[in-house]
Amino acid sequence: xxxxxxxxxxxxxxxxxxxxxxxxxxxxxxxxxxxxxxxxxxxxxxxxxxxxxxxxxxxxxxxxxxxxxxxxxxxxxxxxxxxxxxxxxxxxxxxxxxxxxxxxxxxxxxxxxxxxxxxxxxxxxxxxxxxxxxxxxxxxxxxxxxxxxxxxxxxxxxxxxxxxxxxxxxxxxxxxxxxxxxxxxxxxxxxxxxxxxxxxxxxxxxxxxxxxxxxxxxxxxxxxxxxxxxxxxxxxxxxxxxxxxxxxxxxxxxxxxxxxxxxxxxxxxxxxxxxxxxxxxxxxxxxxxxxxxxxx
Length: 296
Ligand code: NAD
Prior knowledge:
Elements: E1 3-7, H1 13-22, E2 26-30, H2 34-41, E3 46-47, H3 51-55, E4 60-63, H4 68-76, E5 90-93, H5 99-110, E6 115-118, E7 121-122, H6 125-130, E8 133-138, H7 141-154, E9 155-162, H8 166-194, H9 199-206, H10 210-213, H11 215-218, H12 235-252, H13 257-274, H14 282-289
Bound molecules: nicotinamide-adenine-dinucleotide.
C-alpha cells in the first residue's frame, strides 16, 4: 500500500484515482474544483487544499491535467508539489502535454534530483473507468518498474517508449493520427450519406477494407516498411481514385479538406517519379520532404 497524491480529478483523473483507491492505496487528492474533491472523498480519498498538501509524504504523485501550463503550475506554482517531493518521490505525469513542456518540467526537477516519468494515456474515458488504459511511458527502466504496480491498476498495456519525454512524444504522434483520422472519417461518412448510402452499411463495408482496417494493419508493414514498393496498388491508381471521390464530393458539395490535401501529396509523389510504385511509397516522398535520411 502506497501513499499517492492525485492532482486533476476530471473525466480521466477521477476514475483513475478511484481505481488506485480500489487497489488499496491511500490517495490524497487535489483539484481546483471543490466539487471534484467532494466526489472523490466519498470513495475515501483525502482532500488536500493544495498540490503541496496532496504530495506531502507521498511516494507517488499523479498528475492528470489539461496541459503543460497546469502541470507546471501544480508543480512549481504557489504551494506546488515540487516543494513536497524528496528524492524518493516519483512524479507520474499522465496528462497530454507538449514534449518541450515535459522536458522543461523534468529538467527543473532533476536539478534537485527529483524524478519523474511521463506516462500519457491512450484510449477513452470508459477505459479510465474500467482500468484498461494504455500507457506510453518515458523514463528510466527502474522508475517504470517502481510505478508499474500502480499503472497495472489503471491500464492493461504499458509501453516503454524511451527516456523521459518520449512518452509525450509518442502521445503527440498517436494523437496526430487519431485526431486527423476523426476528420477524415467525418468527411467520408458525410460523402456516404450525401451519396444516398446508409451510413451503418458504409461502416460495415469499410471495416472489412483498408479504409477501415487502417494502413498500419493492412499495408505498411508488408509494403513500404519492409522495403517493398512493388505495387499492390500503385500511386497512379490511388491518385485517380481519390480524384473520382473528389469529383463526386464536388457534385454533392461535401467537404474534402483532408482529401484535397492528400491528392496533392499523391501528385507530388507522381511528379517525383513514384507513380508506378505502391501507394505506401507516399511515405518515402514525405520523409524526403522532411529531410530524413533515405530509408535502407
Ligand atoms: P478534464 O478537463 O475533465 O480534467 C482536468 C481536471 O484538472 C479538471 O478537474 C480541472 O478542474 C483540473 N485542473 C485544471 N487546472 C488545475 C490545476 N492547476 N490544479 C489542479 N487541478 C486542475 O480533462 P480530462 O478529459 O480528464 O483530460 C486530462 C488530460 O488527459 C488532458 O491532457 C487530455 O488531453 C488527456 N486525455 C484525455 C482523454 C479523454 O478521453 N478525455 C483521453 C486521453 C488523454
